[in-house]
Amino acid sequence: MPKPSQEDAIYARQHPHLVDFEFNESVVNVFPDMIRRSVPGYSTLVPLIGLLAEEFAQPHSRCYDLGCSLGAATLAMRHRIQQAGVEIIAVDNSAAMIERAHDNIDADIDTTPVELICADIHHIEISNASVVVLNFTLQFIDPAARLNLLQKIVAGLRPGGVLLLSEKLRFDDDAEQTLLTDLHHAFKRANGYSDLEISQKRTALDNVLIPDTLEQHHQRLKQAGFSSSRLWFQCLNFASILALK
Ligand code: GEK
Questions:
Q1: Would the CB of 93 count as within 6 Å of ligand 1?
Q2: DSSP output for 103-135
Q3: What is the structure's pLDDT at 91?
Q4: C-alpha dihedral over 77, 78, 84, 88, to 10 degrees?
Q5: Distance CA 68, CA 101 (A)
Q6: Does 134 sit in the ligand 1 pocket, CB within 6 Å?
Q7: Taking the C-alpha atoms of 34, 40, 46 and 48 in order, what is their torsion angle to the nearest 10 degrees?
Q8: What does the alpha-carbon distance between residue 94 and residue 12 come to, in Å, rounded to a whole number?
Q9: Contact criterion met (CB below 8 Å) for 63 and 57
Q10: pTM, entire model
Q11: Is the separation of the CB atoms in 67 and 90 below 8 Å?
Q12: pLDDT, tens digit, 9 for 90 and up, residues 32-67
């Protein structure tokens, strides 16, 4: 049985020495609550990833969920994909995440095979892919390594294959950046986070989550070799792009 998720109170009290955010055991315990209350649109976006995967999955191909955490997008794809011979490969470099993802997959009744791999996504092989999902993962990758990773994904995709790339956005225009940041903080306050929690989490993520602008994403995807990319989902400063090989 998967362990029930707990409420996220990681930054509820003052932390005298704030360290950079890590995907460790204490985050795993509260992760579903944390991501739902912190990422606007997450609860709508994840099932839609399943729907898009159903559209683009090709028979006898692989669907990848890179930075799968507890396997939310993996399960969403698994619940929709009907094509024969599809295998889902879910990868995360946090052992605590993969351990809990195993429980979630085991408790699910669908039968599409899922392989869970505890590894850095830079080091895994991508081949025979029709769908690749990076759901809020690229933002945690060193900016200097992002193009390389996207090039590896294009190389591993079949013709007609897609990348679904969801990210927190940054905006070049200062007024837009301020407006969307204020709205995001209002979203978190409305979901019960205090101002202390919001500001401590922000500090902890400062060196770890490095967002790009929408324009940077489109340019990098083109440079990596995708033939087109378009925004298909946005909720406040969180968005998802569909890139076609
Ligand atoms: C979801 N997709 O629920 N290699 C493998 N995994 C990594 C790496 C790396 N180099 N860097 C970070 N991760 C999920 C949510 S969370 C987003 C994704 C968030 C993993 C990291 O361990 C974490 O589990 C995940 O990427 C990012 O649909 O917490 O905002």
A1: yes
A2: HHHHT----S-EEEEES-TTSS---SEEEEEEE
A3: 98
A4: 80
A5: 8
A6: no
A7: 170
A8: 24
A9: yes
A10: 0.93
A11: no
A12: 889 998 999 999 999 999 999 999 999 999 999 999
- Closest C-alpha residue for ligand 1 atom 10: 120
Ligand 1 center–CA 237 separation, angstroms:
18
Alpha-helical (H) ranges within 39-173 are 42-56, 72-80, 95-106, 143-156
Burial zone of 167 (CB within 10 Å; 0-12 exposed, 13-18 middle, 19+ buried):
buried
27 C-alpha to ligand 1 centroid (Å): 12
68 lines ligand 1 (CB under 6 A): yes
Query: Is 91 close to ligand 1, i.e. is its CB under 6 Å away?
Result: yes
| Low-confidence stretches of the chain (pLDDT beneath 70) | 1-5, 10-21
Ligand 1 center to 75 CA (angstroms):
15
Instruction: Kindly give the distance from the C-alpha atom of residue 66 to the centroid of ligand 1, in angstroms, as a whole number.
Output: 7
Rounded to whole angstroms, the Cα distance separating 245 from 228 reads: 7
SS3 189: helix
In degrees, rounded to 5, the angle at the alpha carbon of residue 79 between the alpha carbons of residues 77 and 84 is 80
Among all chains, which residue has been given the structure tokens 């396997």?
71
Which atom of ligand 1 is nearest to 23's Cα?
Answer: 22
What's the CA-to-centroid distance between 68 and ligand 1, angstroms? 6
Tokens 């070049």 locate to 172
